[in-house]
Amino acid sequence: MAPHLDYNVRKIQVQILRLANAKDISFPKYMTDNASGADIFAAIEHEIIIKPGEIKLIPTGFCVAIPEGYEIQIRPRSGLAIKHGVTVVNAPGTIDSDYRGEIKVGLINLGQKPFKIKRGDRIAQMVLAPCYQIDWAEVTKLPDTKRGKGGFGHTG
């Protein structure tokens, strides 16, 4: 099914399925009119404590059907990262267009104190992004550039 494009508001329709564990949990929500990431919420039954250095997989209570040619990236919320050291462990996480399971977020506590997550807390954000698969073209030599092989701090 081709995505519905509304060029006036730059939106692409994505089908979303609410799971039984999330009847009272909001769908991903843009917190400002021009936000690029929609906040996603914890669909947990009981409070979770993430100790410093610990990783927890947090359910969101929904599944999506992403249009072909797009992905959803799961990114940290800046407030959680800066204030508490809580971030997405594989940032950005990728949700492929052919995945139909529940969206879950791997959070890690890089802070100094245990961090508490309650049902309905905003835990991360998601961004819909176009993606392309690579069509490899094997060559015997790459084109030269001024930078060449310089990398890993070569500019100071």
Strand order of the largest sheet: 4-13-8-10
Provide the residue-averaged pLDDT: 93
Order of helices and strands: EEEEEEEEHEEEEE
Sheet-strand content, in percent, reads 25-35%
Give the structural class. Answer: mainly beta
Terminal residue distance? 49 Å
Describe the structure.
By secondary structure, the protein is mostly beta strands. The protein has a domain at 24-130: Deoxyuridine triphosphatase (dUTPase) (Deoxyuridine 5'-Triphosphate Nucleotidohydrolase, Chain A, Distorted Sandwich). 4% of the residues lie in helices and 35% in strands. The protein is built from one helix and 13 strands; from the N terminus they run E-E-E-E-E-E-E-E-H-E-E-E-E-E. It has one helix at residues 78-84; strands at residues 5-6, 11-12, 15-18, 38-41, 48-50, 55-59, 62-65, 70-75, 86-88, 93-95, 104-109, 115-117, 122-130. The chain has a four-stranded antiparallel sheet, with no helix packed on it. Strands 6-11-9 form a three-stranded antiparallel sheet. A hairpin with a 4-residue loop joins strand 1 and strand 2 (11-12). The longest helix has 7 residues, at 78-84. The termini are far apart.
